[in-house]
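re: the backbone from monday

yeah here it is again, tokenized this time
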């Protein structure tokens, strides 16, 4: 008769050192015996419960809050892609184009008014600012298009429904007329006329008609000055970019006020105090219009107004508001002094440029984040469904839709 065997080192007649049998529970590693007790393959001790140190508590008694098992939901589109494409316009060339076009447009109007109100210095400075701004705008637009012939191709077709097409037909005559007014003004200087006469000998003979030609060109440029200052706002508002399209009623007023502040500020800074009165009035009127309209853009359109407060756009617009308000204050209090006129004008022009850059950056931000496209779409859809249900006379359906 054999002696009874001990359970030490055996389990149901099988040696624990004989290896796994393949009958372990699913998902569980085979167990082995060692000097320290029961272990899973890989060294985990099964005789000692595993203690997890919790964050924020320092052990078992230090904290009783469990970490969230489900992360916070994030708004995203399919495959993490944008829903609409980001505009491919160059930055900062396009915002600078917006600024120079607006300043030139306002300056052309100031120049035409100064021609007929006996303010020769203001007229001269305004015509120079308008001509330089218009030519620079053409250069920036061609740079954004990539090749000069593309600008000419834009003039082959005129579409009333296309802000870009209409803008091309605003920029072309405006730049030609402002350049003509500024060019004739330069020809009235004897040294310039002498140099030009070497190339065009007939110029001295028609020098007597220069004032009439200059005034006619100035009036023609002023006729396009208002559209030149505001058409770029219509251009960007006509896109699918949420933070540009939603405030389509206010953006033209923002750009108009910003253009008035820039044109008035620049001509005020360049003109003696006794002739700069119209520039001061135009600049202060523009500031009031810009701030009122911009407040509506930044706060009146729900979630699509959010990008105007965030990131780079928010910083630019806060700096723009500071410069604009400071420039307006200096202009109102000390604008009748030469130093005050220069300081106020420079600040107003800087604020206008920063406003254009901030609006541009806000649009790019809203195009990149899908929530600025989808959430307003859902809200509009639910509103239309609720309205349709109310018209159908079923208040229960309307209530369930809007809940």
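seq for it, each position gets an aa:
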């Amino acid at each position: 008769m054999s002696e009874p065997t001990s359970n030490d080192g055996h389990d149901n007649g099988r040696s624990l050192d004989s290896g796994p049998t393949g009958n372990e529970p699913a998902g569980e590693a085979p167990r082995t015996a060692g000097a320290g007790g029961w272990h899973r393959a890989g060294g985990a001790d099964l005789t000692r419960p595993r203690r997890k140190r919790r964050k924020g508590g320092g052990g078992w008694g230090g904290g009783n809050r469990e970490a969230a098992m489900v992360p916070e939901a994030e708004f995203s589109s399919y495959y993490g892609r944008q829903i609409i494409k980001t505009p491919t316009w160059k930055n900062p060339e396009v915002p600078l184009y917006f600024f120079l076009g607006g300043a030139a447009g306002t300056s052309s109007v100031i120049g035409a008014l100064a021609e007929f109100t006996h303010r020769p210095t203001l007229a001269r400075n305004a015509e120079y600012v308008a001509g330089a701004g218009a030519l620079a705008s053409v250069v920036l637009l061609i740079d954004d298009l990539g090749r000069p012939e593309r600008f000419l191709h834009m003039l082959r077709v005129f579409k009333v429904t296309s802000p870009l097409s209409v803008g091309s037909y605003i920029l072309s005559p405006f730049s030609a007329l402002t350049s003509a007014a500024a060019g004739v003004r330069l020809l009235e200087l004897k040294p310039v006329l002498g140099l030009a006469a070497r190339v065009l000998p007939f110029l001295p003979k028609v020098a007597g008609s220069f004032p009439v030609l200059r005034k006619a060109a100035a009036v023609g440029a002023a006729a396009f000055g208002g559209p030149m200052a505001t058409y770029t706002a219509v251009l960007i508002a006509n896109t699918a970019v949420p933070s540009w399209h939603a405030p389509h009623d206010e953006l033209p007023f923002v750009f108009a006020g910003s253009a008035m502040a820039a044109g008035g500020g620049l001509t005020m800074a360049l003109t003696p105090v006794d002739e700069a009165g119209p520039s001061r009035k135009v600049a202060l009127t523009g500031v009031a219009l810009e701030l009122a309209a911009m407040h509506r853009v930044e706060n009146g359109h729900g979630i699509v107004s959010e990008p105007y407060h965030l990131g780079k756009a928010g910083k630019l617009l806060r700096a723009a508001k500071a410069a604009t308000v400071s420039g307006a204050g200096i202009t109102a209090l000390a604008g009748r002094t030469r130093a005050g006129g220069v300081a106020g004008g420079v600040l107003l022009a800087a604020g206008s440029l920063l406003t254009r850059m901030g609006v541009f950056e806000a649009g790019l931000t809203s195009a990149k984040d899908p929530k600025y496209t989808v959430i307003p779409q859902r809200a509009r859809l639910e509103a239309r469904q609720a309205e349709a249900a109310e018209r159908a006379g079923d208040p229960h359906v309307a209530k369930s839709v809007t809940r």
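The chain has one domain: 86-369. The mean pLDDT is 83.
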